[in-house]
Amino acid sequence: MILIILGIIALIIGFVLVKQPNEQADKVGKILYVIAPIFILLGVFTSCFKTIEPGQVGVKTLFGKVDNDVLYSGLNFVNPLVEVTGFDVRTQTYTMSGDREEGTIKGDDAIRILTADGLEVVIDLSVLFNVKSNEAPRILKEIGTDYLDKIVRPVSRTAIRDNAVSYDAVALYSSKRDEFQNKIYKTIEISFAKRGLQLQQLLIRNVALPASVKATIESKINAEQDAQKMTFVLQKEKQEAERKRVEAQGIADYQKILSTGLSDKQLQYESIKAQKEIATSPNAKVIIMGSGKNPVIIGGN
């Protein structure tokens, strides 16, 4: 377009100079007559072709009127008077965080909400979404190119605040966190779809409770851990006591068997068997048999 404008200006100047009686001016005017069409042709040629980068689509606008036909990535032939506005249709991430270096907007941009029990909870949130290619013309007409500030940010923050009032602070922090995330996902998804955006994923990155509530939760967790530890110790002591009881019962049963089950004759018989085995062994020995119950062994090797 710039080349076309330069060509037209050169053509007008050349026309004026040719009308001058000055020979030098006439000469310059004729040169401009030659150059001007070249500029105009180059401008028309380059303006007729628009390159759309990968991951983007182009929306055509002619004198303020938006064309519903979308230009896709690659080289496209268009009217040289058309203005093309690019839209990124790849996955985009919008983060609202209390960390000054993480959020899309620098500084503390976390979402502060009031829960059902009247406590203030601070939430960090990341929204993953993309622009629908076929909806880009409607977005340009109804919203413009600043859909992040007009749609993504306010819709996400409002959805979290509206849904948080149904939960207690501790529930958001622990047992109801996934349920809460699913509810705000559905709310944001419906709102985005109405405006040409597609929600891909919603990430609750952090839930910060008030200091007093956090201290109470930590105290409760510590108490539960201590109780579990004491239960384990008691179980261990009971098992040890049961082991000792079984062992003592076994010893008592063994002693009872020995005291009631072995007679003198049986003991004498067992002694004779042992003496026989000693006598028949290959080791040299002297056995002195006396009147006692047990023999005396001399020289055993």
UniProtKB/TrEMBL annotation:
Residues 47-221 form the Band domain. It holds the Pfam family Band_7. It is a single-pass membrane protein. It comes from the Bacteria. It is found in: Membrane. Gene3D superfamilies: Band 7 domain (3.30.479.30). One of its GO terms (biological process) is mitochondrion organization. GO terms for cellular component: membrane. The chain crosses the membrane at residues 28-49. PANTHER family: PROHIBITIN (PTHR23222), PROHIBITIN-2 (PTHR23222:SF1). This is Band 7 protein. It comes from Pedobacter psychrophilus.
